[in-house]
Structures are given as structure tokens and as C-alpha cells.
């Protein structure tokens, strides 16, 4: 009995949500073993613990437990292990196990994903309650190697922080580095995982995010199986995934739910959108102002004709329209949802038409700005979308100084900078991060 119990404890722990309790009455003694985040504490209290103190013998108590429909004795230790991770309580009576079903799925508090939508995948997102989020992960990732470690962060807020990882898949050197970095954080209050992202980032002025923030349980579970560490924070529906590589930001969960050819097409489409959003405005400036000989004659004359009434250089025209587009995007976020999309759509149409009619911008500039705006929204992870919105402007600056040579140098510099980045020791431009 002790050997079987110790085997279960070794396989399930150490984990902060693993509960091992001893029940003692005047003459009887039994033990219970369960995972608190997947079991209903009310069921455990009312159906397991309270009746124990009213029983006259352990045999009577065992028969009482076995009278429930989904209760039974395990076929082996492995069977007991798999059922405990699925929400059963192991009641240890002398040299015997009784498994009592007490699973709880906290689905009532969940809502649909708002930021990362999918067409055919699961629609639920995390909630702002950390125990509900752990329950959601435990129910969908039923492995005994899943570990939960709790911490308290914030001198004033005392915010609960949980680390989740698969002990068999995780790189323990990376894990220790993450724990050490978290323990070094000294802050008064902490309310968001993106705020936590700032404290965990060693490069304080980096543009590119080195952690993935997601609201999707399915993305979280996929990354757990790949050996990554998940950070959950009380009071926010987003979790932090680390370490990550650049290509994780252009991976959508729809890629896993579509046929392979469709998935490859969508992935290539996203990288095409990345290229357009970065290069198109800078290329317009370079080719219009410095290198018009690259165009065919007809296209060069068409662009020159559309810009005949524009009173300032191409880079001023591009910056003006891009900044106005950024203002429209910010306005759509700040306005009430009932009027935000309508107001920004109408405002953009009126503004573009009026600016073109007044000769302040060219017709082709409207096409370029619209293409760039659409391409920015293709990025599955919002934090990378912000980074790419910023990176356009250094490229435009270099294009206005050096022409097409400046665009090429700017792209080389950006790639060199990203090559230097690390996410807890993992190279940022590594093709994938998967540890078997």
C-alpha cells in the first residue's frame, strides 16, 4: 500500500494543486489523494470526508463509496494515475484504492475568444479567475507530468502567479532561468501578463515581443506539449507562453484544424502580408523619389501623373497617410463598440476621398495605405502586429535617404537585430521550438 501510494505521489508531484490528506476518526483512518483544480471541493467534502466520520468500519465506508455509479477499484497503478488526472479522488483504505469521481469542469464562467478568433476550432477563452484557467488546462491536458507552481508577486497587490509546465517535455535549464527571473521581479502592483512581459524582458527597449500572450486554451495546450512554460496571473484572461521564436507569432490555431494544403497556403499568405506591410510604403518612397527607372515607362508615367498635384515629397505623403491611418485605428479602439467600426470606416472613406480631390495625396497612395492596413491585421498575435506597425517608419526613413538601397539595408539591419534576440536563451529566429 505504501509503495503504491508513493509511486502515485512521485508521478503526480511535486505540484501545488496536488492534495494528499489523512482522515482520522476515533477508530478509523483513511487517506485521499486528488488534484484540487480538477475536482469539486464540495463533492469531496459532502460525499467523501463528512460520511467518513459517520461510519462504523472501513468495510462499511468502502461499500458506501463503491455504491456511487462512477466509483470503482483501479485495475492497476497506471489506471489509478490516469483517472486521478481526469478528476477522480483516490481514497486509500488500508491496502486498497477506491476511485471516486469528483471532476469539475468550470465552463459557466467562460466566454468566447475575442482577440484570437478561429473558424473551426474551440471558441472558448480563458477567464479572469486563475483556478478556472488551471481547471480548463487540466481537463484538456490530462497527463500526470503536468506541474503547477504558485507564487505571489507584487508588494501591494499580492497577485497570485502560477507556472505550468510538462515535467517530461520542458527544458529544465530554461525553466530554472524563468523561475530565477520571476523571483528577481520587485514591483508594487501587477495586473496584466503584458505588464509582466515588460519585467521579464531583459532588452528593455526592444520592439519585438519575445513572449506570446494568448487567451486561447488550445494554443496553450499545444505549447505545453512542446515543452514551453505557461504563466497564469490572477485577474487577467490572458496567459504568457515562453520561450518562443519569431515564427510562433505567425502561427494560427486554424493551421491545425485545416487540411495541410490549406494550412500551408494560409501561412504563406501571412508572410506575404508581413512583407507588404513592411516594404510597400518604403518601396513607394524609394521608387518614386530615387529609383523611378525600375518601373516600366507606362507605370512610371501613371504614378507621376497621379502625383502631379501633390505639393510635397513622396515620404511626406506616405508619413501623412500612415499617421492618419494609425489615428483611425486608435480611434476604433477607444470609441464605444456600437459606433467605433462605423465611425472609423466612414471617417476613413471621407478623409481619403477629400484628400484625393484636394490634390493632397495621389490615388495610388490610397491603394498602398489600404493594403498596408489590411496586411497588419493578418498577424495572429496582436503584439507582433504592433511591432510591425512601428518597423515601417525606420524603413521609410532609410528609403527617403538612400532609396532602394536604404530599404535593403533596413531589412538586413532588422534581420540582424532579430538574430541577436533571445527568448530565455532560445534564438529568436530559430525555425521551431520543440523539445521531445
Short description:
50% of the residues lie in helices and 13% in strands. The chain has 436 residues and is an alpha+beta fold.
Description:
Helix 1 (2-12) crosses helix 4 and helix 10 crosses helix 16. The protein is 50% helix and 13% strand. A hairpin with a 2-residue loop joins strand 10 and strand 11. It starts with a helix and ends in a 9-residue tail after the last strand. The protein has 16 helices and 11 strands. The longest helix is centred in the middle third of the chain and has 30 residues, at 260-289. It has helices at 2-12, 41-52, 58-66, 77-85, 130-140, 172-183, 193-200, 217-225, 254-257, 260-289, 297-306, 314-334, 337-357, 363-376, 382-402, 404-420; strands at residues 18-24, 29-35, 88-93, 96-101, 146-153, 159-166, 212-214, 229-233, 239-242, 422-423, 426-427. The chain is elongated. The strands form 3 sheets. The chain has a 5-stranded antiparallel sheet, with helices on both faces. Strands 1-2-3-4 form a 4-stranded antiparallel sheet, sandwiched between helices. A two-stranded antiparallel sheet has the order 10-11. The protein is an alpha+beta fold and 436 residues long.
Present the secondary structure layout.
Blueprint: H1 2-12, E1 18-24, E2 29-35, H2 41-52, H3 58-66, H4 77-85, E3 88-93, E4 96-101, H5 130-140, E5 146-153, E6 159-166, H6 172-183, H7 193-200, E7 212-214, H8 217-225, E8 229-233, E9 239-242, H9 254-257, H10 260-289, H11 297-306, H12 314-334, H13 337-357, H14 363-376, H15 382-402, H16 404-420, E10 422-423, E11 426-427
Antiparallel strand pairs: 1-2, 2-3, 3-4, 5-6, 6-8, 7-9, 8-9, 10-11
Amino acid at each position: 500500500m505504501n509503495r503504491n501510494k508513493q509511486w502515485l505521489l512521485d508521478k503526480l508531484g511535486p505540484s501545488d494543486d496536488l492534495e494528499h490528506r489523512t482522515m482520522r476518526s476515533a477508530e478509523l483512518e483513511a487517506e485521499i489523494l486528488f488534484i484540487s483544480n480538477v475536482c469539486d471541493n464540495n463533492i469531496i467534502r459532502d460525499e467523501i470526508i463528512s460520511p467518513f466520520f459517520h461510519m462504523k468500519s472501513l468495510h462499511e465506508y468502502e461499500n458506501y463509496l463503491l455504491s456511487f455509479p462512477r466509483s470503482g477499484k483501479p485495475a492497476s497503478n497506471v489506471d489509478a494515475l490516469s483517472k486521478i488526472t481526469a478528476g477522480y479522488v483516490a481514497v486509500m483504505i488500508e491496502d486498497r484504492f477506491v476511485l471516486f469521481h469528483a471532476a469539475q469542469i468550470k465552463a459557466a464562467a467562460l466566454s468566447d475568444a475575442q482577440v484570437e478568433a478561429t473558424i473551426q476550432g474551440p471558441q472558448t477563452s480563458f477567464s479572469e479567475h486563475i483556478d478556472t484557467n488551471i481547471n480548463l488546462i487540466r481537463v484538456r491536458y490530462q497527463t500526470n507530468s503536468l506541474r503547477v507552481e504558485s507564487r505571489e508577486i507584487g508588494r501591494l497587490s499580492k497577485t497570485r502567479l502560477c507556472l505550468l509546465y510538462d515535467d517530461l517535455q520542458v527544458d529544465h535549464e530554461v525553466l530554472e532561468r524563468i523561475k530565477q527571473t520571476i523571483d528577481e521581479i520587485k514591483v508594487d502592483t501587477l495586473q496584466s501578463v503584458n505588464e509582466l512581459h515588460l519585467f521579464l524582458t531583459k532588452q528593455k527597449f526592444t520592439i519585438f515581443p519575445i513572449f506570446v500572450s494568448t487567451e486561447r486554451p488550445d494554443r496553450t495546450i499545444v505549447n505545453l506539449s512542446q515543452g514551453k512554460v505557461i504563466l497564469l496571473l490572477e485577474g487577467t484572461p490572458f496567459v504568457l507562453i515562453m520561450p518562443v521564436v519569431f515564427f510562433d507569432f505567425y502561427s494560427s490555431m486554424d493551421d491545425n484544424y485545416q487540411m495541410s494544403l490549406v494550412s500551408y497556403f494560409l501561412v504563406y499568405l501571412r508572410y506575404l502580408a508581413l512583407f507588404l506591410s513592411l516594404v510597400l510604403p518604403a518601396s513607394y518612397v524609394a521608387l518614386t523619389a530615387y529609383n523611378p527607372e525600375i518601373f516600366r515607362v507606362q507605370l512610371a508615367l501613371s504614378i507621376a501623373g497621379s502625383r502631379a498635384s501633390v505639393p510635397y515629397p513622396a515620404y511626406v505623403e506616405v508619413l501623412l497617410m500612415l499617421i492618419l491611418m494609425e489615428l483611425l485605428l486608435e480611434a476604433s479602439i477607444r470609441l464605444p463598440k456600437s459606433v467605433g467600426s462605423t465611425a472609423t470606416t466612414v471617417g476613413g472613406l471621407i478623409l481619403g476621398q477629400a484628400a484625393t480631390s484636394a490634390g493632397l495625396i495621389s490615388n495610388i497612395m490610397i491603394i498602398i495605405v489600404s493594403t498596408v492596413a489590411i496586411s497588419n491585421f493578418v498577424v495572429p498575435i496582436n503584439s507582433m502586429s504592433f511591432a510591425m506597425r512601428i518597423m515601417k517608419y525606420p524603413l521609410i526613413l532609410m528609403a527617403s535617404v538612400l532609396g532602394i538601397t536604404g530599404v535593403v539595408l533596413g531589412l538586413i539591419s532588422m534581420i540582424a537585430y532579430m538574430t541577436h534576440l533571445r527568448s530565455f536563451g532560445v534564438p529568436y529566429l530559430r525555425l521551431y521550438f520543440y523539445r521531445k
